[in-house]
UniProtKB/TrEMBL annotation:
The keyword Transmembrane helix does not apply. This is 2Fe-2S iron-sulfur cluster binding domain-containing protein. Keywords: 2Fe-2S, Iron, Iron-sulfur, Metal-binding, Oxidoreductase. Residues 18-94 form the 2Fe-2S ferredoxin-type domain. Pfam families: COXG, Fer2, Fer2_2. The keyword Metal-binding applies. PANTHER family: OXIDOREDUCTASE WITH IRON-SULFUR SUBUNIT, XANTHINE DEHYDROGENASE IRON-SULFUR-BINDING SUBUNIT XDHC-RELATED. CDD domains: fer2.
Amino acid sequence: MTAHRQITRNDADAIKPLPIRLTVNGEISDHLVPPRTQLAELLRDRLHLTATHLACEQGVCGACTVMVDGRPVRSCLTFAADCDGIEVETLEGWQGDELMDRLRAAFTRNHALQCGFCTPGMLATARDLVERLDTPDEARIRNELSGNLCRCTGYVGIVGAIREVIEERDALRIPPKSPPALPRIAAQGFAPFTARADEVASAAPAALGETTSENGWTIVRRKVTLDHPPKAVWTHFRDLPSVARCLPGADLSETDGKTFAGHVGVRFGPISARFEGAGEFTADDATQSGQVTGRGKDRGGQSNVEGQLAFTVHEGETPATSQVDVSFRFRIEGVLGQFNRPELVNGLVDYILGEFVANCNAVLSGGEIRESKGVSAWAVLRAVIMGFFRRKG
Ligand code: FES
Ligand code: FES
């Protein structure tokens, strides 16, 4: 009974509206906001600044990006009650802004204005990049833009537009701006700490390597260790159906050992697709190396993928283990084009390779392949695998 009264009193305190004053697009306004009100809600519902879009509402898509005190923030993850005294800029505030006018023109020239839903967040981020980046470096732009998701087409036009406006800014000899310093206020209720080296997890990753992009291709290089000698691993790897069984979601419908056809199911959040494809496989026993090339297309024709996989089996640190050098090179066009970004692919590829290695080790030990738990990370594996399939017909 006592505990019930205590909870009720705390809840009542927790929902008491708080007074805030903020400056939005140069205009000061005062508000009383319940603690759980998002900044995005305040902008849209009270100030009617509806260019700020809400989509995922969990900080993933970037549609709600606005500038707060000169830095881009997710207005869906920002409590309005924490915004007392801040300055906010939204798309509406950049009417007549020279940089934004140049960006709008460049977006139009590059066919980068597409569905309109992601566009306000894209433009807010683009303006920040144009103000801040010291060169029109494509990899840097793609990296920094990776927090803004496009679900329709892709980033080629958007990246091209941003590069053009940075070049225009350079031609006008306008130097890049540094972002404003972050306020040095200690976070309440959280004690900062520095990780101690002896507390860092010591488990070795299943794979080591890098992910880069080059002319629209994503290139993934990894070194994978298997707990079996090279001869056994090579025998397993040159047997295409056996390897395909270790790749969750992949299903070979036909193969003669040199060519193959099959399908792969892809699921990543709300995106799901089934790719049909085919490809070729070559293996060289002398060098214990192989190559798979292929091309695929999903049923609805919304995404195409093409790719090559090369691998070589070496002796590992002991004769009882193997090291496999793997290199994927793939390109995805369409709905799943977001997987062309190394920032998205990189961490997940390691997770996926870990599962693949576990399955290979299990098969080589005479055990069973693990059941796929259906986590979304599989989608990247499936997308990568589709690089090895070529569309039938
Ligand atoms: S709505 Fe804020 S990041 Fe998606
Ligand atoms: S153009 Fe808006 S989601 Fe792609």
